[in-house]
Amino acid sequence: MRKNLWFGLVLVAGLVLVAGCAKAPQIEIDAARAALEAAKTAEAAEYAPRALAAAQDALSAMDAELTAQQKKFALFRSYKNAKTLIAAAKTASDQAAQTAAAEKEKARQESTNLIAQAKASLEEVKAALAKAPRGKGSQADIKALESDLAAAEMAIVELDNVFASGKFLQAKAKANAVISQIQNVQTAIQAAIDARTKARGGK
Questions:
Q1: Same domain, 29 and 109
Q2: Which residue in 114, 125, 155, 179 has a CA-CA distance of 20 to 30 Å to 161?
Q3: Mean per-residue pLDDT of the chain
Q4: pTM exceeds 0.70, yes or no
Q5: How far apart, in whole angstroms, are the C-alpha atoms of residue 87 and residue 201?
Q6: 179-202, pLDDT tens digit by residue?
Q7: What is the distance between the alpha carbons of residues 198 and 133, in angstroms, rounded to a whole number?
Q8: Are residues 74 and 134 in the same domain?
């Protein structure tokens, strides 16, 4: 009798233990999902797309394992492997958020430097254009260069607005484009100076 009672207690305890193990770790699952959303909020799609893709893949693997366990009879479910995948998904999402933050700061610094360079170059080339040789046949060229610089100046105003909105990668690309535009004007001015010097016999 006692033996049967003991066996029954052990069986009940075993079933309770199995049932406990068969319960999905919802707190950890929610934390993993929240971590992925945090990475998206940190603009990982723009600043850390590869890291975000890895996090999304990890979360998909987690979901697949959870679904597989849910399809099983309760007493046969095991979330041991799922817990490993859940932890991996959260870690990947945290890393995506951290990478995004670091890359965004890097883009901010780079665009800041490029905007300063664009503004300095604009002032330098405007001064050079004011001193550019003027004469018969050059007035139309001077007007064209002045128009190019005016366009570059307007582009810099727009560039400041893009930067202020926090779109640092876009600001970086626009800054490089403006710098290139200004350098083209600078090259044209230098060509005009060289041509005038040559016409005067190198004097």
A1: no
A2: 125
A3: 88
A4: yes
A5: 77
A6: 999 999 999 888 877 777 777 665
A7: 12
A8: no
